Amino acid sequence: MNSDILFVSDLHISLGKTEITERFLSFLEIRASKASAVYILGDLFDAWIGDDDPMPPNNKIRKQLKLLTASGVPVFLQLGNRDFLLGKKFSNDTGVTLVEEYKVIDLYGTPTLLSHGDLLCTDDLPYQTFRLKSHTPEWQQNVLSKPLLLRLLAARWYRLRSYVHKRKKSLDIMDVNQEAVLKVMREHGCLRLIHGHTHRPAVHDFTIDDQVAQRFVLAAWSKNSGEILCWNAQGYHVEQL
Fold first, then answer.
1. Who contacts 143 (Cβ-Cβ below 8 Å, separation ≥6)?
2. Model pLDDT for residues 219-228, shown as the tens digit of each residue
3. Residue 1 confidence (pLDDT)
4. pLDDT tens digit string along 115-142?
């Protein structure tokens, strides 16, 4: 084991994305097994309709995550806008620790705020309205009480609707709002933020109350590549798989 802490997000694993699935399984077996911790910042799956879903490749992912956590590597998972129905059973099955939507960690001496990132896209009002409703216990209990097949069909319909709606939105609306970024970083006392969601990998430098701050945006994985943000005592670097 070495001192690297690894961050990934937006893999959007599904039955039809075999290249991403195999790359992630290989990542867990080889690269992640040498890390001191792994953080998955949302949208591990393209859709999650409940912890009782046995559809491939869910069980393969569960098994490999369990092997990793059983070996002593802690894995932390934030929920994204696609897989927010992940629950306690998935956590118990895999040994993965589910963390809150805003999580502060001590990253080699610097308080660092972690988030999936969707909460920061405050200009996307229709999405924020849906998010507020869909994260209530009542809404989730109602959805999870439906038969598995009905949930599967509903998820496919939602993905199609989401795709159509995104094509109608401007890119700026789907990006984070800088004022929202400043507000949440002040609230949590952090000058560093790491998030995903927007699929716009970059490092943004700015100031908060005359102090230097940074925002790291993780890349979405694709058919051809996967990106990892690696951090150790010497600093950070990006690895391509």
1. 50, 85, 151, 154
2. 999 999 999 9
3. 45
4. 999 999 999 999 999 999 999 999 999 9
List of residues 6+ apart from 213 with CB closer than 8 A: 185, 191, 192, 193, 205, 206, 207
CATH number at residue 64: 3.60.21.10
How far apart CA 226 and CA 103 sit, in angstroms, is 24
Answer yes or no: is pLDDT of 230 > 80: yes
Domain that holds residue 75: 5-240
The count of domains in the chain is 1
C-alpha distances in angstroms, 197 versus 26, 40, 46, 92?
Answer: 23, 12, 12, 25
Q: Which residues contact 62 (CB under 8 A, 6 or more apart)?
A: 90, 93, 94
Which residue, chain included where needed, has tokens 């984070």?
176
Cross-sheet strand order for the sheet of 37-41: 97-98, 75-78, 37-41, 5-8, 227-232, 235-240
